[in-house]
Structures are given as structure tokens and as C-alpha cells.
Amino acid sequence: MAVEVKIGVHNATRELVLESGQTPKEIESTVRSALSDANGLLDLTDERGRRLLVRTEHLTYVEIGEPVERRVGFGTV
């Protein structure tokens, strides 16, 4: 299952988007932990293993989507 995460950043025209293998609760916990840390660095990893690091002082919002199971193939939905 994949969870889409959208992150708004100050002075950026586009949001950052990644798909995470974590649950929405795990992502929320990671965000809350980063916001409460004095150094304030949000560290998320997408499904392909790429890391996204954002200073929390630059965050405007974090949108956590619902888990979606990917379907593969050409069958009807």
C-alpha cells in the first residue's frame, strides 16, 4: 500500500509530493516529532528509497492521503 504525502514549502511555487510505504499514523508521528525537535528537520523516505529532508521552519503544510493499494494490469475496475 502507498500513502501520498504532499508538503508545502515557503517560497516554493510547487508542493513536494512523495508516495510512502508508511501508514498515515507513522507519517503523522514523524512530522510531529520533527516539529517538536529544536533542530526541526523532517526526514521522509519514499517507496523507492529516496529521502526527502525539509527544515520544519520552511513547512507550510503536510497533507497525508489515505492508503491506496496499487492495481496492475489492464482489467476493468
Structure summarized in a few sentences:
This is ATP-binding protein. The protein has one helix and five strands. The protein has 77 residues and is α+β, with helices and mostly antiparallel strands.
Entry keywords:
SH3 type barrels, 36% strand, alpha+beta, single chain, 77 residues, elongated, three-stranded antiparallel β-sheet
Question: How is this structure best described in words?
Answer:
This protein is an alpha+beta fold and 77 residues long. It has a single domain, classed as SH3 type barrels (Roll). 17% of the residues lie in helices and 36% in strands. The protein contains one helix and five strands, in the order E-E-H-E-E-E. The chain has one helix at residues 24-36; strands at 3-9, 16-20, 41-45, 51-55, 59-64. The strands form two sheets. Strands 2-1-5 form a three-stranded antiparallel β-sheet, covered by helices on one side. Strands 3-4 form a two-stranded antiparallel ribbon. The model has no long low-confidence stretch (mean pLDDT 90).
